[in-house]
Specification:
The protein contains five helices and seven strands. It is of the alpha/beta class. It is globular and about 40 Å long.
Length: 170
C-alpha cells in the first residue's frame, strides 16, 4: 500500500469488523470512501487490523504524509458513542500494547513517526458500548450513530466533504 505518497494527510481507520464496536474505524472509512469527496492530498484507508504494517511502511519510506490520523474504537469509560481526541502520550495503559492493532506496541511506531520524522499524529477515538469476546459483527446503535459525526470531524479538519448525492446516514 503506497496511497500516502504525495499526500498531506493519511487517515488510517483501525478495527476488526467481526468484533462489534471494534469495527468503528472501518465503518468511518467506508462512509468516507463511499459518500464523500476526498481531496487529492488526503488518503482514507481502511487499515482493519493491519495498521501496524502500514505504519512500518510509512516509517521506512522516504516520502511520508505530514499528518496521520488514526481512527479507532476504545473502551475508556466514557459514554458509548462519544467521540474524543486522544493524546498519544496519554494513551490508556491497556491500549498501549493493543490499540486495536494487536501485539506489537503500535503506539511506539506512532511516537517514532512523530518524534523522529516530524509527522503530526492525531487519534480520533469512539467510546465503545461493547466489544464481544467472540465473533459478532455489527456496531451498537450509539457507535453506529457516531460514524457520521466522525466523518463531519474529518470534513472540518481534512477537507473530506460529503458528496451532494450521498444519503445522510443516521
Amino acid at each position: 500500500m503506497s496511497d500516502w505518497h504525495g499526500k498531506r494527510s493519511c487517515i488510517l481507520a483501525c478495527g476488526n469488523v467481526l468484533f462489534g464496536d471494534d469495527g468503528f474505524g472501518p465503518a468511518v472509512a467506508r462512509s468516507c470512501i463511499r459518500d464523500c469527496t476526498i481531496p487529492a492530498d488526503v488518503c482514507v484507508y481502511d487499515a482493519g487490523t493491519s495498521v501496524r504494517n502500514i505504519l512500518f511502511d510509512i516509517l521506512l519510506s522516504e516520502e511520508r504524509p505530514s499528518h496521520i490520523v488514526i481512527i479507532d474504537a476504545m473502551d475508556v469509560g466514557r459514554e458509548p458513542g462519544e467521540l474524543f481526541s486522544l493524546d498519544l502520550d496519554a494513551m490508556p495503559g491497556k491500549k498501549t500494547d493493543d490499540f486495536s492493532m494487536h501485539q506489537i506496541p503500535t503506539s511506539n511506531l506512532l511516537r517514532e513517526l512523530r518524534d523522529l520524522c516530524g509527522v503530526t499524529i492525531t487519534i480520533l477515538a469512539c467510546q465503545v458500548a461493547h466489544i464481544p469476546t467472540g465473533v459478532s459483527p455489527g456496531l451498537s446503535r450509539p457507535v453506529s450513530e457516531a460514524v457520521p459525526r466522525a466523518v463531519e470531524l474529518l470534513a472540518r479538519e481534512h477537507g473530506v466533504r460529503r458528496s451532494p448525492h450521498a444519503a445522510v446516514t443516521r
